[in-house]
Structures are given as C-alpha cells and as structure tokens.
Amino acid sequence: MKFNGLTDKEVEESRKKNGSNEIPDSEPTTFWQEFKETFSDPMIKILLAIAALMIVMFFFGYAEIYEPLGTIIAVIIVAFVSAKTGVASDTKYRELKDSTKKDQCKVHRNGVVTVIDVDDVVVGDKVLLQSGDKIPADGILIDGHLSVDNSALNGEAEECKKTAAEPAVQLTDNITGDTFVDKYSLFRGAVVFDGEGILDVRRVGVKTMMGKMAEEMQEEEPDSPLKVKLAKLADQISKFGYIGAIVIAVLYLFYFIASEGGVGAFFALGAEEVIQKIVEAVSLAVVIIVCAVPEGLPLMISLVLMQNTSKMLDHNVLVRKAEGIETAGSLNILFSDKTGTITSGKPVVTDIVGKDKDELLKIAYALESKSEHPLASAIVEYGKANNIKMHDINEFSIDAGYGLKGKIEGNAVAGGNLAYISKFANVSDELIKNAEELAKEGKTPLYFCKAKDVLGIIAVADVIKEESIVAVKNLKNMGIKVVMITGDNEQTAQAIGKKAGVDEIYAGVLPQGKEEIIRKLSETGKTAMVGDGINDAPALTRADIGIAIGAGTDVAIDAASVVLMKSDLRDVPGAIRLSKGVLRNIHENLFWAFFYNVIGIPLAAGVWFPLFGLKLNPMFGAAAMSLSSVCVVTNALRLNLFKVHKKDEMNVKNKESFEKISDNNVMINSNKKCQSGCNIKDNNINSNVKETSKMEKIMTIEGMMCGHCEKAVKTALEAIDGVESAVADHEKNEAVVKLTKHVDNNVLKETVEKLEYKVTEIK
Fold first, then answer.
1. What's the topology of domain 122-213?
2. What are the φ/ψ torsions at residue 512 (nearest 5 degrees)?
3. Contacts of 555 (CB under 8 A, 6+ apart)
4. Which residues in 487-519 are b (16+ Cβ under 10 Å) and which e?
5. Of the candidates 412, 422, 486, which has an alpha carbon nearest to the alpha carbon of residue 451?
6. What distance in Å separates the CA atoms of residue 314 and residue 686, rounded to the nearest whole number?
7. Model confidence over 403-450: pLDDT tens digits?
8. How far apart are CA 353 and CA 207, in angstroms?
9. Domain segments of the chain: what residues?
10. What is the DSSP letter of 374?
11. Can you say whether residue 166 is alpha, beta or left, with left for phi > 0 and alpha for psi between -120 and 50 degrees?
12. For residue range 619-659, what is the model confidence (pLDDT) as tens digits?
C-alpha cells in the first residue's frame, strides 16, 4: 500500500490542533526560586520573627543592633548556599539529558519517506516502523505485521504480535494491560522486535502513555524521612521552648507583683516602671525562645546535604533526590543490571576460529553489513577497524532469528547459529566443541560457510568493564552484598557474574521480575539498584536508592535518585563512603544542638540564678544562637576535606589480577518458567542483615496507580516515629509496615490519607 503522508501545511495544522510530540521537562531551577524557597522553612520564619522582635527592642533601647543582624546574616548565608547548590545540581542534570542523542523516525510526508526527530511527529503522520525502531507516538498499525516489546511501559518483555487494523479503528482512551497486547495498538517507547509496518499516529506528547509516565516522574517529591523526622523533633523542642517562655514570663510578672505587695501596689509604681518590668519579663521569654529554637536541626540537615551534593558533583555523581544521600550510608544490598552497567552494553568481536581467517572475515563482513542486528554491528565495526575488504553480495535475505544468506561471486554464503548453518554444510565436531567452550564464557558463536564449506566461527560478546570488577570488589570490602539481575540465560549470566565477582545472580528475569526481587529483599535492609535502560525504571523506583548510568535512557535517569555521570561503577563506593561521612556529620551536629539546649534553656530561664548566680543577658542569648549556626556551617564545610576514594581505589589493574579477584563461588538463581521474576528463598538474603523481632501491619490502600505513588506512601510512612520500614505495592493495593514500637492505626491512616489515598483496612 502506498502512503503519501501529510503535506507541510497539514503538519502545521495538526501541530496547532493536537499539540507537539515533545514531552516537556520540568522548568529549569533558577537561583532566585531556590533562594525564596529557603524562606518557606518554618524554622527560618521563626528566626526572622525573633530578629524582627529584637529590632523593635533595639529601638526601645533594650537590645543592641548586632543581635538581630547576626541572625539575619546566618539565614542569608544558608539561603545563598542552598540556592547555589540546588541550581548547580539542576544544571548538571539538564546538561546530561541534553547530551543524549535525539531519537529519530521515518515518516511518509509529501509523498516521500523522510527522517525526522521524534519530537516533530504530529497526529495523522504515517510512520514507517522496521526492526529495531522505537515507536515515536501512540497510534494504530494500519499496514504490515510487527513483533513489539512493550516492557518500557508494562514491564513485560515477551513479543506482542501486531497486525494491521482498518483505518477507522480508534485508539481506546481506557488503557489497560489487555490494550498493550491487542492486535493493533502501538505505544510510544515500545521497540519493534521484528517486521515492518505503518503506524497511524493518534496521540502525541503528554497525551501518550509515555508522556503520562513522564509527568508522574516530574511530580514534586516529598521530603526525605530523615528530614521530616528531624523537622518534627525541632518543632516539638520549639513548642516546649514557647510554652516554657510564656510560663517563665508569667511567673516573673507574678514575682514582681508579689514583691511589691499585690496588684494595686504594683501598678502604683507608675506606668514607666510597670512597662520596664513587663519588658524585662518579655526579654527573658525571648532569650528562652532563642535558646529553645534548634535552628541547627533543619538548617544543619540542609547544609550538610547540600555540601554533600556539591562534593559528589566534583566526583561525577549527580544527586537528584536527597533520600539518595541519606540512605546510601546504611546500604546493605546493591542490585545491578548486567548489560550496559556491569558490561559495556555494546557487543564486540572477541574470538575468531578458522583456518582461513581472512576469508572468514570477508564473508562475515559482507553478510552482516546488510543486517541491523546488534551482533551484526559488532562484526561490521571490527571489519572497519581492521580494514577488511568487503565482497559484493547478491540475493541477500534474512531468516529472522536464525541467520543470513546470499551469494558472493556466484557462491552461496550463509551465517548464523549451528542449526541454521547445518542446513548448508556439515559442521565438524571440533568446531562445535570450540563453540561450546566459547558459549560457556558468555560469548555468542556465529558460524559462517561458503558453498558447502564451513569457514569457521566468530564469537561476539558484551564484554565486562574492567572498572566494574574494581567497583564490585570495593563494595564487598565495605560489607555490601552485590547482586546481579539480568534477563540473559544462566550460562551467560554465570560467566559475567563470576568474572565481576558478584555475590549472587538472578538470571532469566523479566523487567517486572527485577522489581519483585528488590521488593522481597528490601524487607531485610536498605537496597540500591543500578541500571541504564527503560526496563530498569520500575526497579530503580522500587529500591531505596535508584542509581542510573549517565549514558542510559532518559526514563532511567528520571526514575533515579543518583546519576553516575561518567557511567563508572567505581563512583558508587565513593558515594556510599561520602554518605556515611554525612550521617556522621549530622549525628555530631545533633549532639551539639541538644547539648546547647540542655545548657542554654535552664540558663535563660534563670534556673541557675538561685544556685550559682548565673543569668543570661538577651544579648548573649542572641550571640550564642548565632554562634551555634556558625558551628553548624563550619562542621558541614569539613566535608570538603573528606576523602571520597581510598588510595588506588580507582586504578584499573591488569587482567590477571581481575581474574584472581573474581575467583569465588557465586549463587545462581534461575527460573525458566518465571513470567515476572524468580523464586526467592530466605537463604538467598544478605546474611549480614540481623533478624530482629518486629511488629508488622498490613494496610489496604486504594488509589495507588504507579511506582511514584508507592514511593510517596513509603516515604510518608517511614517518617512516622516507630516505623522502621514500609513497602507499598500498587498492584496489591497494600503497604507492609514494620514497626519498632506501637503506632496507633489512626496515625498510619491519617498519614496516608493526607496524600489523597484511601485506607480501607489495617491488620
């Protein structure tokens, strides 16, 4: 069927009517926005109110001007540092996304097939889809046959067969799981496994399923559990200070009245004397509030985390979400994808077996140059790099999933797997044995023949990154269990996993299965997931920390809390070590904040005056408060001296030493029948995690629809005092909450329902 496609005029009309196919990113963060945001902190508001009160007292002669100035300067410094760090992180994130290559597609326009950016696709476009293409928009297949991978959207990696529908068929508005696997519906982000067809575009941009997912990713993240808990603690301490200040002020007034012989005698002193006594009582109350307000708590968290973010940026680690910093220091298990994470993600030629290697390479180069398969690209690149002469090939054809064939100089040639080549020639036992040995090493052997003679084997593999081996060793030395999760077969996974030195392998796992494995093991400790693909996004969201490879997909980067900008796993141990330093810094500041309050509040309240004659002047109270802020800032700045990497930790040694590193026993988990994940036994769980007796509650929650909903519920519940961990599951409509002490059901329910989800049962 011939398609003329839209004209330039029709394209513009469609874009005006239905919108662009571009999925907009969040607006860039500006310095002024970040600066203003700092002043929304309740503690900052309290400090500014105190400063304003001191300014009023200054005009009446009861305070010095430098008292409020110290507070104001401290607040401005914090706001400046916060804004500067926030803008720097956002800028690096956008630079990273802008560096990725824009997807393109082939579209019928003005009677010809034109290659355009995906963002330029409009409703009504007729898009030519071929093997390996990424679907650019939502629509209906109106010509041809396709096999499609929808795992980017629904986590299911099996091939979905698509056949042409009538042009009048409409794309349903009610998208369900069945819609993804129907006969003709196609969705943005899915990948064409095989076939060729024409997509009639029906939805673009934010109206597509991928666009809706991207919008959910951009929703404002709630504050991290640590920050929420400390803010609550600060609020409780502050309330204690306010109540104490009022009580002390009232008691002092009663004392003044009683010492003068009653109310009448007190007011008989005259207006000036009475006002002076009242101001004295209020001044005392101000001093108590100043001492009680632990500005060091929320401000200290912000400062330390900001300093950590800046430090990580210097070491090529972009922190997008604060919980990534907070949680990394208590990490127990790190999960890692294989392809593109532990390995390079790009197949290369590793072995050439044959008597006439030159002829073998020429034939292979000619055949594979006609294919778009990833394994073919490895041979083509090898041929180009080694200046291999390419034969002219005729009568070329592809037997999808099996091999390639054609004619060179009148001779029939073919390339593919053993079963395919056996149709054309007899393969020797010796060559088969060589192929089996190569397969055990995780390599894919490709056979090639000319006429009825087998020329030999070219082995292709996605080779392991040497820096990945170093990273795994460093992580294990830190007491962190390293688990590799891959969709590859057990043989390939074992070969890569053993060389990398991981503790455990889950092989043959589909995308949704990765999330299930992490969900199960997250009950035993803090987890992190490292990945690079769209199919890793559910797992990145499920883990306590999602770590994306900088060279990965936009969806993976958006789903992650931390991004490795250099795509180097060796940066992970450094980030964890820095996080531990941050937590130490926070605990130090917490100690001094409480120490300051324990000493300062009784002193301000006059408790020590009858015993030791000690009384705190408001001037010194303000100075002490400012000094506490200075101490917090100074302690946070100590992180600049922190050594992120140990000596020689980043050095890549020779191949022999790598093999010695990885000479260990690896636990292999494989389930051929598994549709979403693999069976997980208790003995597969990190042995370093100690089991304790904990209370557990299961909440039935309605309204959760995605991984972002799960994350919001988890974060809110874990911020409750007494909640050790929470695991939410939108598919089961439940959250499993582990407690360290009794927490009332009403508290759990109110916390979740504040997020606009409905709690129907708690058991």
1. 2.70.150
2. -70, -25
3. 152, 189, 210, 213, 214, 217, 534, 537
4. bbebebbbbbbbbbbbbbbbbbbbbbbbbbbbb
5. 412
6. 32
7. 889 999 889 999 988 888 999 999 999 999 999 888 888 788 999 999
8. 52
9. 31-97+222-305+579-641, 122-213, 348-461, 692-763
10. H
11. beta
12. 555 556 556 666 766 776 676 666 666 666 566 554 444 44
Enzyme catalytic residues:
337
8 A C-beta contact, residue 428 and residue 454: yes
Position 421 scores a pLDDT of 92
* Listed range (54-68, 314-328, 415-429, 594-608) with the worst mean pLDDT: 594-608
Q: Which fold has domain 348-461?
A: Calcium-transporting ATPase, cytoplasmic domain N (3.40.1110)
Q: Are 27 and 126 in contact (CB under 8 A)?
A: no
User: Are 364 and 460 a contacting pair, CB within 8 Å?
Assistant: no
Q: What is the pLDDT of residue 674?
A: 39
For strand 562-564 and strand 723-729, is the pairing parallel, antiparallel, or unpaired?
A: unpaired
How many residues can be counted in the chain?
A: 763
Q: What is the mean pLDDT of the chain?
A: 75
pLDDT tens-digit series, residues 657-694: 444 444 445 565 654 333 333 443 333 333 333 333 35
Q: How many whole angstroms from its chain centre is CA 96?
A: 14
Angle ∠(238,240,246) on CA atoms, nearest 5: 105
Beta carbons of 733 and 757 less than 8 angstroms apart: no
Other Cβ atoms closer than 10 A to 43: 20
730/505: higher pLDDT: 505
In the chain, the amino acid numbered 95 is E
Q: What is the rounded CA–CA span in Å between residue 375 and residue 364?
A: 11
Distances (CA, A) of 143 to 121, 140, 166, 353: 18, 9, 9, 43
Q: What CATH number has the domain spanning 692-763? A: 3.30.70.100
More confident residue, 136 or 37: 136
